[in-house]
Amino acid sequence: MLGSKLKQAREARGVPLHEVEWATKIKAAYLEALEEEDFASIPGAVYARGFIRTYARYLGLDAEPLIADYNASATGATEIISTRPAVTLERSGMMITPAMVVGVALVLLLGIFGFYVKTQFDRYQASLAAGSQSTPRVNLPSPMPSTSSVPTPSPSPTARVYTGVELIIKINNGPAWLRVDIDGQPSAETGAGGKIYQPGAVLTFNGSQTVHVTSGKANNTDVTFNGQDQGPMQGNGDVADKTYSKA
């Protein structure tokens, strides 16, 4: 029941497991184990509940009923306890218990999460620094007025002046997962978890300083920045991550 709900919700969105892995930072093998209800492949009930809550939030599902299904299942109702005798260290006499193993695993997980957060922050700061560099403008001398009598041309329309950042995103060719942050905060359109948009969707975002875009399908994401067509986003494979800053 639990696995079928997760799988049906994912397939309804048309999202492959590898894209969910990128968005949630949960290994695809663990996501597949949840969908197949193969809880023995997940290292402990604490991790399983955390994975269910994160996966459900990504799919837009209520996590509590799913966690209740997991707790009620025969495999998820109790923690997996090793039948081997506790290992005793010969030198110090310390006994390794399941609780110690779980504690060490939690410490490692927190360390990895902290490293990930720091890496993302450094990348964001580097993007801001790169985007703040403006290209110097070259002032060309005005041509001398002609002495011959020529008709006075009609005034051309005044070009639009952008005081901040306007980003128009159009989804082409296939669906794409997007998250957009405006001036360092998640946009009201995509939220912190991002959304999947279908071909033909056109979205407009306005920021006073920066608009940061993360796309799971770079080739399907066309961007117009302050009236200039940037074409499809470029990234590492399918994933694109770029900040557009005020000039």
Could you name the key traits of this structure?
single chain, 247 residues, alpha+beta, 434 Repressor (Amino-terminal Domain), five-stranded antiparallel sheet, four-stranded antiparallel sheet, 36% helix, elongated
How would you characterize this protein structure?
This protein has 247 residues and is α+β, with helices and mostly antiparallel strands. Among the domains are: 2-72, lambda repressor-like DNA-binding domains (434 Repressor (Amino-terminal Domain)); 165-245, no CATH class. 36% of the residues lie in helices and 21% in strands. It is built from six helices and eleven strands. It has helices at residues 2-13, 17-24, 28-36, 45-59, 63-72, 98-131, and strands at residues 87-88, 95-96, 165-171, 176-182, 185-186, 195-197, 202-207, 210-215, 221-225, 228-232, 240-245. The strands form three sheets. Strands 4, 5, 6, 8 and 11 form a five-stranded antiparallel beta sheet that branches. Strand 4 (176-182) and strand 5 form a beta hairpin. Helix 1 packs across helix 3. 21% of the residues are buried. Mean pLDDT is 81; it is low at 76-92.
